[in-house]
Write a structure and sequence with these properties.
This protein is mainly α and about 575 residues long. It is about 60% helix and about 5% strand. It is elongated and about 110 Å long.
């Protein structure tokens, strides 16, 4: 097979021909050579003898070309082909124009040594010598290398790859392989990284297969090729490739925790937390210790996917192995503990942050206070509030909402209302519908219907959105205070404001009317609402408790005619009524 060494054909046919006869112009003229970027040089016998020392044998063919170095391309410039000139201006057989340079020309290229070695293993015999149609650098020229030191050439290959000189790096790699020189694993990894950045995936895959066949693949090699496959073909293809690599005996000792981190990151971007968990367990099965990055990825992915328990488990395993978590990881764990209601674990994580000299943010303080508030730990919540002020931070709406909720959950409803009015006096701009609704919850629990109406009026005056939740709290306060007529007025106001009542609204109004003996209003509400088993069951319960068995029987018959299913308590009341009759 013919190859090209610095523009010189090494085919047997070319070297079997005699040199052209000497020219007639001037004595001592011989074959004229065209070195790179220079004009024609008339050689003499001594030049011919000197050039004969540069001989390379490929198969049974000898190339007498001048030596060619790649220092120019290492400096960032691409090389120009070296050609042979004819005699007396006559063109050569390949179309050379006798030295009339009209720009750099490149000789026809042949498949590279690298492609032939890898292609012979992957392609069918009939197609093994054909370059990949999808490859941009499937063919390249070969150069005669004066430098024979593998370490020096490997450093040169690394520099070319780092500068993204894909063609020049490929030519140097192929020339080294053709000369029997072996590039270092670092140089091959650098060329692979260059292919990943600037070439199609097919080039990177051929380089990867070459390195794996030669036993030069490292953990970094697997990391780069898996990232490239995931970027071009998706995480599923990358995971299938990783599974095949794990099954190979020669690769088991090479795969390290960094390769696992790569796959965890790839699956995490796709929000596939189940695959991430499986990789985490396989990491333990192969006796590999996770790094700080491993647990950072695990906690972040599990928190983003809403898997708080797995995130806390990964964090605990991280602490057991003596790794110090980052600030972001501890913030994510505190948020997960708030969601899961594990306020004690959140407090221990917060204490660890303070011991590490980290300065918690306002968001972190709010998360801790919210977690304590949901657990009804009002004293600890206010301690955190005082610590927040000492840190120089100013509370915002979320801070006050968490404190109000802490007081309400601990049963201190009057203190909740006092705190609300304190916020209204000192920070009126921070009041929003959430703070009002928390205060209305306290009014409902205390039966403070007048206070609830005042807050409802203030919300309308300030232009805040009145939701069905706000109306429900006020109607609930009227129910607790046995004010059915006021509850009906709030209910009518709600409908006039085009706020659609829900099931809780109807239940509260009906209960208030039943205990207020407003039977006509109860029947009117039943005519307005859509058929709902819970509403009819509540009406029958109330009527039976108030001794209105006849009306209860009427409502029960209507309920069964609409196909609604009574609950056990309703059936018991009806059976008791039948037995009494």
């Amino acid at each position: 097979m013919a190859t090209v060494w610095s523009g010189c054909s090494t085919s047997c046919g070319s070297f079997g021909q005699e040199l052209p006869p000497r020219g007639k112009r001037g004595g001592g003229e011989g074959t004229r050579f065209l070195p790179r970027r220079r004009g024609r040089i008339r050689g003499d016998a001594r030049q011919t003898q000197a050039l004969s020392a540069a001989m390379v044998t490929v198969g049974a063919c000898v190339c007498r070309a001048a030596p060619c170095l790649l220092d120019s391309v290492v400096d960032g410039t691409e090389d120009v082909s070296v050609g042979f000139g004819g005699i007396d201006g006559e063109p050569l057989a390949d179309g050379y124009d006798g030295g009339k340079r009209r720009g750099p020309r490149r000789r026809p290229t042949r498949p590279t040594v690298f492609q032939k070695e890898v292609g012979a293993r992957t392609a069918p015999p009939a197609m093994a010598s054909e370059p990949d149609s999808k490859s941009e650098h499937g063919v390249s020229r070969l150069h005669f290398l004066e430098e024979r030191d593998e370490e020096t050439l490997s450093r040169r290959l690394i520099k070319l790859s780092q500068n993204n000189k894909v063609r020049s790096a490929t030519e140097l790699f192929d020339s080294m392989r053709a000369s029997g020189l072996q590039p270092s694993a670092h140089a091959c990894n650098s060329l692979l990284a260059c292919y990943v950045r600037r070439s199609p995936l097919a080039d990177a895959m051929r380089m990867f297969e070459f390195m794996k066949a030669k036993g030069m693949a490292t953990g970094h090699t697997y990391t780069m090729i898996l990232k490239a496959v995931a970027s071009n073909q998706g995480y599923v293809s990358a995971l299938e490739m990783f599974d095949k690599i794990e099954e190979e005996e020669g690769s088991k000792k090479i795969i390290d925790v960094i390769v696992y981190n790569t796959m965890i990151s790839v699956c995490g971007r796709a929000k596939e937390w189940m695959l991430v968990e499986r990789l985490w367990r396989r990491l333990e099965q192969h006796s590999l210790n996770g790094t700080l990055l491993t647990y950072d990825l695990l906690v972040s992915i599990f928190v983003q996917c809403g898997q708080s328990e797995l995130a806390i488990a990964a964090y605990q395993e991280m602490l057991q192995k003596g790794l110090d978590p980052s600030e972001d990881i501890m913030k994510a764990i505190i948020a997960s503990c708030t969601k899961e209601g594990k306020w004690e674990f959140a407090m221990s994580t917060f204490s660890r942050m303070l011991r590490a000299g980290m300065k918690p943010s306002l968001i972190l303080f709010n998360s801790i206070i919210n977690s304590l508030g949901k657990a009804g730990q009002d004293e600890l919540a206010f301690r955190m509030y005082h610590l927040l002020e000492k840190s120089g931070l100013k509370p915002d709406q979320y801070t006050w909402s968490a404190l109000l909720l802490a007081l309400y959950r601990s049963g201190r409803c009057w203190d909740c209302l006092k705190l609300f009015h304190g916020i209204k006096g000192k920070h009126p701009t921070l009041l929003n519908d959430h703070l009002y609704n928390t205060a209305l919850m306290s009014c409902e629990k205390l039966g403070q219907w007048e206070h609830g109406l005042q807050l409802l009026w203030l919300m309308e005056k300030r232009g805040l959105k009145l939701s069905v939740v706000s109306y429900n709290h006020v109607i609930g306060a009227c129910e607790v205070a046995s004010k059915p007529k006021v509850a009906l007025k709030v209910y009518q106001r709600m409908i006039n404001q085009r706020c659609s009542p829900d099931t809780f609204t109807h239940l509260s109004v009906i209960r208030a009317c039943i205990w207020g003996s407003l039977w006509t209003e109860v029947e009117d509400i039943l005519e307005e609402v859509a058929p709902d088993s819970s509403i009819y069951n509540a009406v029958i319960h109330g009527l039976c408790l108030r001794g209105k068995t006849g009306l209860a029987n009427k409502v029960y018959a209507k309920m069964r005619s609409m196909g609604l299913v009574p609950d056990g308590k309703t059936r018991a009341f009806m059976l008791q009524h039948i037995a009494t009759d």
